[in-house]
Amino acid sequence: MYTGKLVRLREYREEDIPLSNAFFNDNEIRGLMDSGTGYPHVLADTKRWVEKNSASHDTYCFAIEALDNGRFIGRCDICRVDWKARVAKVGILIGDKRYRGKGYGTDAMEALIRFCFEQMNLNKVKLDVFSFNTRARRCYEKCGFIAEGVLRREIYARGQYHDNIAMGLLRIEWEARQKDKSF
Questions:
Q1: Domain ranges (residues) in the chain
Q2: Per-residue pLDDT band at 183 (split at 50, 70, 90)
């Protein structure tokens, strides 16, 4: 699979499912990625989700593994693939709190973007991020994503309304960044 400096993107394994379920049920994580009511996931639901979304016609899920110890630390996804326009939505979750704020998310997103452009031949990747999720926004900006629009007060979380920020990265922008990195 695709490897960065800190992580490897690989297939989901049976032994990842219990920890993935725990990530889904962590209130902090749910509050950063889901604007809906945080109903708990049962293990069987998580297993079905992994089986259904691991590689369908428009959804591709990867487990994120730390290179230094092989630990499953999160997941990243490519979904809503529009093959005609060559655009897809991406997402990432570092579920293991010990790996947050240390560059693992940025490294995983860089590897995912590389997969999107080099293997899937996409023209654009996009994502949404809640305005209060500053750590994720910094990660996406480091990877080259640009804010393309703001859906004002679209998210209700933490007892108030927040903006949902649409961000995108074009292939030509990514290629220019790759050339800049080579110097």
A1: 2-181
A2: low
Report how far Cα 70 is from the mean position of its chain's Cα atoms.
Answer: 19
Under 8 Å between Cβ of 91 and 77 = yes
- Please tell me the predicted confidence (pLDDT) of residue 23: 84
pLDDT given for residue 44 in this prediction: 83
Task: Report the chain's C-alpha Rg in angstroms.
Answer: 16
Residue 38 in this model has a pLDDT that exceeds 70: no
| Cα 14 to Cα 111: distance, rounded to the nearest angstrom | 23
Task: Report, as an integer, the average pLDDT of 67-80.
Answer: 95
C-alpha dist (Å) from residue 43 to 14, 16, 23 = 12, 11, 11
Cβ neighbors of 33 (< 8 A, separation 6 or more) are 91, 93
Once rounded to an integer, what is the mean pLDDT over residues 105-116? Answer: 97
In degrees and rounded to multiples of 5, residue 39 shows phi and psi of: -70, 140
**Token pair recorded at residue 125:** 């990747």
Instruction: Name the CATH superfamily for 2-181.
Output: Gcn5-related N-acetyltransferase (GNAT) (3.40.630.30)
Contacts for 54 with CB less than 8 Å, ≥ 6 apart: 11, 12, 60, 61
